[in-house]
Amino acid sequence: MTREPLFFSSRWVLAKIRWLALFVLLPVMTAGPATAGAGRELRNDVIGVIKNQIEAFQRDDGQQAFALTSPDVQEQFGSSEAYLSKYSTSYKAVYRPRSVTFLNLAFSRGRLVQRVLLQGPDCGAVVALFPMIRMDDGTWRIDGCVLVPATGNRAENDPKPVPDPETMG
Description:
The protein is of the alpha+beta class. The chain contains six helices and five strands. Strands 1, 2, 3, 4 and 5 form a five-stranded antiparallel β-sheet that branches. Strand 1 and strand 2 form a beta hairpin. It is globular, with a radius of gyration of 22 Å. The chain starts with 9 loop residues before the first helix and ends in a 20-residue tail after the last strand.
């Protein structure tokens, strides 16, 4: 009497892995490089603006940090001094981060929002949501910031929806 193996044969498993790889890799390999390049360029542009602002905060350069915000944010704060004061007291994780990890770039209600995992000076982790707007000259500006506690889950798998950017400030 022959017994059936408890597991499939290794040849069968290898054949299934090859088929799976073909169906997973083929769409990736045939995707248009222009689309991937444009998405990467957009993300790099947005990340560059946020990095520049964080670097300005680290130098206490309120004018540079303020210059990277949207006209609405500039109107709301009125001056670079008021803006720097607010961030130095209420947004310490953005003002003096110990570590910065850029997460996914997403669209929420037609607006671009960059998520950033920050470890603050107190070692607490938060996710900063940066809604972005594109200016007429093609540059990107920060249109506010909302800090939410980082969960124990990986931040990019956090099921919470991105808040309405119109309420961000």
